[in-house]
Amino acid sequence: MKLIKSYFYNTFFILFTISIFAQVKNIGLPDVRNYKRNEYKGGTQNWNIDQDKNGNLYFANNSGLLQFDGSSWKKFPLPNLTSVRCLKVDSSGKIFVGGYNEFGYFQSDTKGKLKYTSLAKKVDKNKIKIIDFIWKIHSIGDQVIFQSFARVYIFKNNTLSILKAPKRFQFSFVVNNKLYLQDIEQGILEYKNGKLYSLPNTKSLNNTEIWAMYPIGKDKTLIITLEKGLFIYEKNAITPWNTEANNFVKKNNSLGGTIIGNKFIVLNSVLDGIIICDYSGKIIQHINRKKGLQNNTVLTSFIDNKNNLWLGLDNGIAYINQSSPFTYFGFSYDISTVYASVIHQGNLYVATNQGVFYHSWNNNFKEDVFKLVEGTTAQSWNVQVIDNELICANNRGALTINGGKVTRIIDSKGYFGFKKIPSHPGFFIGSNYDGFAIFEKTSNGLVYKNQISGFDKSSNSFELDQTYMWLKKDESIYQMTLSQDLSRFSSIKKIDQLTSAYKNIGSLQQIGGKVYFQTHNHFYRYSAEQELFYEDKHLSGLFKNIPAINALSEDTQSNLWYAFDESIGVLMKENNKYKNIVSPFSNLTGNLVSNYLSVNTIDSNNIFIGLTDGLAHYDPELLNNFTAKPKAYIRSFSFPGDTIILGNNRNKVENIRIPYSSNHVRFTFSSPTYENLENVQFSYQLEPFDEKWSNWSTISIKEYTNLREGDYTMKVKVRNSYGIQSEPSTITFTISPPWYRHFLAFMLYFIFLIIMIYFISDRIKIKIRKNKYYETIEQRRLYLEKEARIRQEQYDLEKEIEKLKNDKLQIKILAKDKELVNNSLQVVKKNKILNGIIHKLKEIDVEALDDSTKFQVSKLNKSIVKEVNTDKSWKDLEKHIKNVHFDFLKRLKEKYPTISPRELDLSTYLLMNMSTKEIAEIMNISGGGVELARYRLRKKLGLNKKENLIGFLMSI
What we know:
By secondary structure, this protein is of the alpha+beta class. Strands 1-28-27-26 form a four-stranded antiparallel sheet. The chain has a four-stranded antiparallel sheet with strand order 2-3-4-5, with no helix packed on it. It has a four-stranded antiparallel sheet with strand order 6-7-8-9, with no helix packed on it. The longest helix is centred in the last third of the chain and has 100 residues.
């Protein structure tokens, strides 16, 4: 009972919401999103559409039942794999479907998975061999009615009853909770209490197919036929509905339609898409292949719980965002990038990169395209009304437009735009490619006067006050003074920053007739008297919590439109207060024209915004539900061995316990938010695993691996394309510990620990007794080992002392040998000197000396000769050298066994760093002989020319 009441309240709220928010704009086209068969992985044709209370959409497709939750598509085929031609979701959440020779319902099982129950099995195959196609399904009270061409199958209280057609049924319809069927012979029949009753005067339509019937007033029913048009059944009479909509249906045939909020009628066509008309039959919108549909044959239409329109096409599915306050003029209206727009003399003009285009403002926009203004085919930067004259700033020059064509070229230079000169009434200044020019308003219109000299830079961002002209170029502004005759700039001053606190200038704009300079969302004005910039605290305060803006424009309603990053927002003025509105414009992000904020506010219901691919129309006063919070769903919860599906009429599960071996979990998310799905984002947090919410992402899947045992709560929230967040959706589950960390395992561990403690303590006692015995033996062993070690150490110490004594003695001997070598070398030098003296004495002519002197000389000579002959220093020298370098000579001989004694001596002398001359004297050979001996020694040692001989000897 509670479930029925809850469903009733939800249904009432949805219907009330749809009725309140129902809107169909006659200006521009709503956003159209096509779904191709390779996206939903099904057949081409989609025959019927319905929606459950969670917002999931269902489509009767040639390949089976399709389900779409906003994130993913799922397909559920019938048992006989035939196409599904109709479906109906009832209050209990069952999804009734009908196909060829098969009908029944899908319902979620205990795991949330949709399982099929066939009702066709209840049909007695002996009596009815072929069920044929089920074309319509209706839920009325506690009955579900399945209609084929031959019969009606009524499912009630789990039983199936059958009602045969009088001749042959066509289709059936529910009007004001009453069921009507068309019979090809008896006309329209009303089903009541298990019987059929003919409606008077309805047989006139027997020769055509009725595809829909809708109430459009008190006791007034609209009948939609395939090819005969539209009819009204009122007061038991059928009359043609001679309207604009009827003409469309007769021309293009109709396959039914739907109602939008009891205000508008959607009519599906075979040849030309759909039309939306009001209850008087006036066409408000026409959407076909040219205007965005992927196919012109519309098999079914459906209004979802957000008042948006879904179409089942002969090839694909289409979503039409009717609830949005935005509609668009794009390629289907033959316009491209829009830089400016204006209303003039009953026409809407738009300046584009291809020229200026126009469309009648008073006529319906549903069919006509924009027309090109003749003579403007070029880049058009602006289109303005100046004193009731339409002026275009074009690449070809300043142009006057009248009657759909250029009537006058005011100046042939390319222009960006025009502004009044406050200090000179009747004069205007225009920004062109070469700087600025002066124009005067005359009785013949705007007239070019002169180019202003002194400045040749161009920009579309400039403003004028009573004293100066201000120009923004790059991130600087120029303060410029016009001469009195407007022929030149008498002074120009470049300003790079307004205050020391902020560098660069963000934007230049006029608000309330005053020029403002903006940097980092701080707004300044200029005081000519004090010659300084001062901040407007009130205006800066309005932008305190707004991202840094790069452009700002005030419209005719005193609203402040601003651009930031690649987005747009507005401070809407209401009762002298500003309200910041950003979220509705998030869908325009990335489509705004860079450096050209184009907003044209005609009135409170009509605002045009220039885009890179056309023009957007915004009606802020339309009631819509974009501010409603979206809903987030955890669609599935998977772990090895099982998957739990949520959202199929089952949103909560309890007591989910997962074995530790399956601690790899996977979640999928969804949100029945079908508007701008590419901007729908999810954030999640698994408590206590995640410390904080994840970053926003369009990914709707999350996996966790190797989770520890414990209780977990998965939380998911969604943020729609308007930046509005949902309440979190949660699911709790528990991961059981592994067997070795289970409570019983810990109990066993405790008991085992007690036993082990007792066993170990007993073993320790035994061990202690044994250890005391072994300890005594070990101490004795250690004492003996220590005593033996001391004796060995004493012996080793004595040997070491003896060795040190020997080494010391040897060092002393070597030192003495070195000393003797040095002394012997000195004696050798002495003998050399004495031999020189002997040689000199021999050269003395003794015959010329007297006898006494001759005697003395002879005596001296003999004395020196005796000294030289009796000196044994050389032999001692050789002995000492060999003693000193004994180890070296030994190593050299071992390494080079073929070395001769003379080469050993030479090696020793070289090691002692003797000069060639000293070696020659000691070895009693010439200097050349020493070099030859060195060469032979190098060769025997195997040295090349680059290797140092002495260094090599020292390394041995």
